[in-house]
Amino acid sequence: MDTFFKISARQSTLGTEILGGLTTFLAMGYIIAVNPIMMQVAGMPFQAALTATCFGAALMTIIMGLVANRPVALASGMGINAIVAYSLCESHALGVDWRVAMGVVFLEGIVILILVLCGLRKAIMDAIPVNIRRAIGVGIGLFVAFIGLKGGGIIASSPSTYLTLGHLSSPACIVSLVAIVLALVLETIHMKGSLLISVIGATIVGIPLGVTKLPDHWNFGLDFSSFAAPFQIDPASGSMALLAVLTTPALLMFVFSLLMSDFFDTMGTIVAIGDRAGFVDKQGNVEDVQSILTIDSVAAAVGGFMGASSITSFAESTAGAAAGARTGLSSIVIGVLFAIFAFFAPIIGMVSASATCGALVIVGFLMLSGIREIEWDHLETAFPAFITIIGIPLTYSITNGIGFGFISYLVVMAVLGRIREIKPLMWIAALAFLLMFVVS
User: Fold this and answer.
1) Which residue in 192, 256, 307, 425 has a CA-CA distance of 20 to 30 Å to 381?
2) Phi, psi torsion values for 75, nearest 5 degrees
3) How confident is the model at residue 91 (pLDDT cuts 50, 70, 90)?
4) Mean pLDDT throughout 18-26?
5) Beta carbons of 308 and 224 less than 8 angstroms apart
6) 240: which DSSP letter?
7) CB–CB of 423/132 below 8 Å?
């Protein structure tokens, strides 16, 4: 096992890999409860969505561990599942059947897999200026911390100022503050497993405060009726769901939108995880990137096939990397846990957003260290880096932040009269982003 996963070679241990896997799983385990609810809005049976969510994540995360040997976890992507539920299925304009929506996801996965196998995805990553690559990881760090603070209630929405301080005396905020303090104290004294302990400790504290909901039922049933969804019959047209996608221009535009989101979300996420797990060099190049991107692309198609929405790499994997995970063994641990909790989903439902707040805030802090590597005296890449950093959390989208960074890079280089220095793939990517923003 040590030889296969290169545990010692990467200066890790068996215990550290298991701990890292547990930390990531608890940080992203909310998807087990959230995704089935989103898919239920789309019209899919809840138990079928739960089965697809768990087994889809388990399958692709284990494959990532065995093939790429990197601590990258995959599951149904938040954001894309919202598009599926509200823009595709519940929309008054489209209102397609969930099987057709899964056909859109499946087709997007096939297209992005072709782009990866052609080397285009890696080539675009290589074409991105180093400062912007570094900025992506920093922006995701702010994004992860923002997700933690927002989910924990410490940051709340406001009609007048958009964002404001939450009610710190509320039970949810109290648990969040306990999670942050606990994670900070344990991290300060270099306690092994500090992030995992903070999640568990905050979950326990949340029981008497009513934030941690104890299971009131156990459901051991599995439902595989959503599998092969794109090849099932669309009730509205009477034809195969995938055929309905291929013959509807509006749905093909959704394929393009999902493609852009999946393409660049994963790119940013992999850079961020690699930076924490030590497989990104000083030039921002990701080791084993082709195998990682290939598996992620296959996962998108598998998600559509199984009815789990698009399965993608999770930024929460940075929590496991921060806990010491360096190999694919941690991914195996995560995958096995997803498979087990297909039967015990109520247990993961006990872990609230408040309980994971501390871990996500600390991870965000750790990821911010990359900001010192950005060459701020080079305006042509420093300003796009700045736009990328603030664009990711402020638009609540990794893809949007990267898009703003790319477009601003082209503008600055054009003004400086250095258009010839822009690599062709950066032109293609920036123009694709511009098209996406206009269409949206």
Assistant:
1) 256
2) -165, 175
3) low
4) 93
5) no
6) B
7) no
Distance from C-alpha of 301 to C-alpha of 128, rounded to nearest angstrom: 26
For residue 222, give the amino acid letter: L
The tokens describing 325, both together, are: 């995970």
C-alpha span between 66 and 292 (Å, rounded): 11
Q: Position 101: which residue type?
A: A
pLDDT of residue 82: 77
**Residue 272 vs residues 236, 258, 437: alpha-carbon distances, Å:** 42, 21, 24
Residue type, 234: D
The string of DSSP letters for 123-143 reads HHHHHS-HHHHHHHHHHHHHH
Distance CA 207, CA 215 (A): 11
3-state secondary structure of 13: coil
Q: What is the pLDDT of residue 440?
A: 65
pLDDT of 96-125, one tens digit each?
A: 999 999 999 999 999 999 999 998 888 888
Average of pLDDT values for 306-332? 94
Token pair listed for 285: 């190049």
Is the predicted pLDDT of residue 126 greater than 90, yes or no? no
Bridge partners of 162, per DSSP, are: 158
Q: What is the Cα–Cα distance from 197 to 167, expressed in whole angstroms?
A: 25
